[in-house]
Amino acid sequence: MTFAVTSKAIGGRLIGDRFASTAEVVVIPVIAVIAALIAFGGFVGLFGVNPVELYTDMYMGAFGTFFSWQNTLTRAAPLILTALCTALPAQLGMVVIGGEGALVMGGLCATAAGLALLGAPPVVVQLAMAVAGMAAGGFWIAFAGALRHYRGVNETISTLLLNYIAIAILNHLVEGAMRDPASLNKPSTHSIGDQNMIGLIPGLGVHWGILFGVVAALIAYILVFHTVFGFSARIAGGNLRAARVVGLPVGKLILTMCFLGGCSAGLAGMVEIAAVQERANANLAAGYGYTGILVAFLARQNPLACIPVAILLGGIGASGGLLQRRLDLPDASVLVLQGIIFIAVLASDTLYGRFKIFQSKAV
Amino acid sequence: MADASSLGFWVVPIAVLGGAVRVSTPFLFVSLGECLTERSGRINLGLEGTLVMSAMVGYGVSYVSGSPWLGVLAAALTGAVLGAVHAVICGLPKVNDIAVGIALMLFGIGLAFFLGKPLIAPKANILPAIDFGWWTTIPQLHDALKINVLFLLGVVLAPVLVWALRSTRWGLVLRTAGESADAARAMGYSVNRIRLRATMTGGFLAGIGGSFLSLYYPGNWNEGLSSGQGITAVALVIFARWNPMLCFWASLLFGGAAALGPALQSVQITWGYHLFGAAPYILTLAIMIVTCSPKRTLVGAPAELSITK
């Protein structure tokens, strides 16, 4: 009898603790974002912009109308995918910031595959593009993973360098071997063709990429938190030496996680081509890879949390145009706001464990 | 013109050499600054943002005041402020310095684009160069021998930093913080304060590098001014084994690599312009692959540095 009561009490306490720790990882980033919004409001205030008006406009531009929701979700799609490129290797304690490069390589290879198969049934072309894009992005980041594992090269620096190299390859090819001679002002490849575009979700007016993103995030979440593989990766991320001692294949974990992260960003590149751009050109490097890093950190590297965070940041991006038109702010305002949010979120890491209400009472 | 054709293919190495001196200056200042910061045990990846932000501020101040030297000073102070932001945030417990660097990189670039919008069109006064090529009639060589004062300052600064790190109390304290924070604490020093100073000095130097971009070469302000020089310079410090003198030689090497594309273009070789433009990044990566090792920590690496732990 006493035993039953005790175990029930423990059960209740555990659920309470779990709720408290979940609340902590939600509340602290929200505080950080609010602090960043206040700071940014003060910043634009210096330029004579009323912060209340600013945030009203931003809300309207991001979530206020059906059209702005379309715009927001269209931007959120690549953000979810590039965020996973940071979030998956992060399970191993790695800081990968190569989403931009993997997206570019994915988009480029997807375009090449699409152009090679012109004339085939659209489903075949789209499938080939997706496979090519994912493989290109995957190998691109797995290369950085291999350098880390076999040569001890820091993955943060190598992936950032790979971003610049990928953009150089893109420019080289679209201005050279892959150029459509008809593209005069903006060198581009040939179009992959209207019939091969992946199109919009009926009734929503948003392309299918958002679904790819959500599915990828779900798969990543299950992989990280509900498989032995993900569990091993998190052990290795927590304590590399312990992982080696218990015989975990650290190299395999690093390469696989990097490959999957790169696949995801590569798919983002494919989606940008097959749903938005129709042809590869310099537009491919639009900064989704960099915003994706912020999404991953704001989501605390949790793949599932990447979905709402990507929608939030997609919304901020979508409101940029409106801020420019209505308030006469430069288009870089969005970058400034993102930077402030990023800094605030990282600084808020110091708050974990400081608030009593979130702490386990069992101690 | 006769001279140019008689030089033939020699134009390329001359242009690469001249370019190496010109292009290496920002690499040099950023890597010297980062070298100091890293020797104190912290890595600041945000110097890419510092470079862009200080280039914008330097250009703006030079445009408003008419004095490019005031611009250099303002750029350096901007760098120091951004360094202080990095150091203060990283000084909080549980905060990751690599991630904060990435955030500051994005923030610095965004802020520079935001504030620098009105500076794209106007022409500011730019820095003068010292003409070491007065004796030659070959225009290419003459061009290559026009050397900016900031480069010479960097040449002097590198050995001075080697000496300061090795032989001054300040250098010893800084290195102690980088090798063992506990030892520095035991001696009664505040590790955070040492790193704050080192990161601010590092930002100050990187700011000078940024002013070189906008006030000498290429000598204007636009949003594509720096594409990765800051981050390449951070990688270069690893290659240079945290030694300021080696940073100098490595900067020259990287400057030469970066000058290769424009040099080839000057003899009508335009193929692969973008690929040659990426040469410094490819070179950095190649060097890191060759010189890093998973088995041992790098020779000369400060023990407290998160990037090599």
Tell me what you see in this structure.
- The complex is a heterodimer of chains A (363) and B (309).
- The longest helix of chain A is centred in the N-terminal third of the chain and has 44 residues, at 2-45.
- In chain A, strand 1 and strand 2 (206-207) form a beta hairpin.
- Chain A has helices at 2-45, 51-64, 66-90, 99-116, 122-151, 155-174, 209-226, 228-238, 240-245, 250-277, 288-298, 306-318, 320-327, 333-347, and strands at 200-201, 206-207.
- With 363 residues, chain A is mostly helical.
- Chain A has a domain at 83-303.
- A two-stranded antiparallel ribbon of chain B has the order 1-2.
- In chain B, helix 11 packs across helix 12.
- Chain B is globular.
- Chain B is 70% helix and 2% strand.
- Classes of the chains: A mainly alpha (363), B mainly alpha (309).
- At the A-B interface, helix 5, helix 6, helix 11 and helix 14 of A face helix 5, helix 11, helix 13 and helix 14 of B.
First-residue to last-residue Cα separation of chain B: 56 Å
What is the level 1 CATH name of chain B? Mainly Alpha
Mean pLDDT of chain A: 91
- Supply the helix-strand structural class of chain A: mainly alpha
> CATH architecture of chain B, please?
Orthogonal Bundle
Helix content of chain A: over 70%
Oligomer: heterodimer
Largest interface: A-B, 46 and 49 residues
Q: Mind describing the biggest β-sheet of chain A?
A: 2 strands, antiparallel
Tally the beta strands of chain A: 2
What are its keywords?
heterodimer; A: 363 residues; mainly alpha; two-stranded antiparallel sheet; 14 helices; disordered N terminus; B: 309 residues; ABC transporter involved in vitamin B12 uptake, BtuC; 2 strands; 70% helix; 2% strand; globular
How is this fold's topology laid out?
The complex is a heterodimer of chains A (363) and B (309).
Chain A: H1 2-45, H2 51-64, H3 66-90, H4 99-116, H5 122-151, H6 155-174, E1 200-201, E2 206-207, H7 209-226, H8 228-238, H9 240-245, H10 250-277, H11 288-298, H12 306-318, H13 320-327, H14 333-347
Antiparallel strand pairs in A: 1-2
Chain B: H1 2-7, H2 11-39, H3 47-65, H4 68-91, H5 97-116, E1 129-131, H6 139-144, E2 146-148, H7 149-167, H8 169-179, H9 181-186, H10 191-215, H11 229-239, H12 244-266, H13 273-277, H14 279-291
Antiparallel strand pairs in B: 1-2
Helix pairs in contact in B: 2-7, 2-10, 2-11, 2-12, 3-4, 3-5, 3-10, 3-11, 4-5, 4-10, 7-8, 7-12, 11-12, 11-14, 12-14
